[in-house]
Amino acid sequence: MTQFAYAPPPLVDDPHADEYTAPFWQATLREELTAPRCAACGTFRLPPHRFCHRCRAQALEWLPLPGTGTLYSFIVVRHPLRPDMADHIPYVPAVIEADGAPGCRFVSNVVDCEPGLVAIGMPVRVVWDHVNERTVIPRWRPA
């Protein structure tokens, strides 16, 4: 497992991928960031779901992303939500607007940055948290 400063414990050790999310999790195993786009109209659909909200088409295509983005929103968690998380606070859950995928936002964490320095609009890049052999979680650090 990879260690990052200011990261919560990896409570997710199996993403329970379904037919819509499996391509994303398979790409993370290769340390590739991808996003689903409607094959009919080109609208990004994250999270992926059966129908495009714009044109109602079902077909998806998965596109590679550059692994960079902009911090859209965040909070700083300073109190443990569970006793086993006490050693992992503070940490920063965040919403990242991905470069190369208009309207595509990832929910993850900002790591390796003092929580007081995190700011909306901050450029970030993906880093890979290898939780185990079958789960790799994308997290983000300042670019």
Provide a descriptive summary of the structure in words:
- With 143 residues, this protein is mainly beta.
- It is 6% helix and 34% strand.
- It contains 1 helix and 7 strands, in the order αβββββββ.
- A hairpin with a 6-residue loop joins strand 4 and strand 5.
- The radius of gyration is 16 Å and the shape is globular.
CA-based shape: globular
- Rg is 16 Å
Beta-strand percentage range: 25-35%
Count the helices. How many? Answer: 1
Order of helices and strands: HEEEEEEE
Please bin the fraction of helical residues: under 10%
Total number of beta strands: 7
Question: What is the CA–CA distance across the termini?
Answer: 22 Å
* Uncertain regions spanning at least 5 consecutive residues: none
Q: By helix and strand content, what is the structural category?
A: mainly beta
**Average pLDDT number:** 92
**What about the largest sheet?**
5 strands, antiparallel
Strand order of the largest sheet: 5-4-3-6-7
Give the SSE map:
Layout: H1 22-29, E1 34-38, E2 60-64, E3 68-74, E4 92-98, E5 105-110, E6 123-132, E7 135-142
Antiparallel strand pairs: 1-2, 3-4, 3-6, 4-5, 6-7
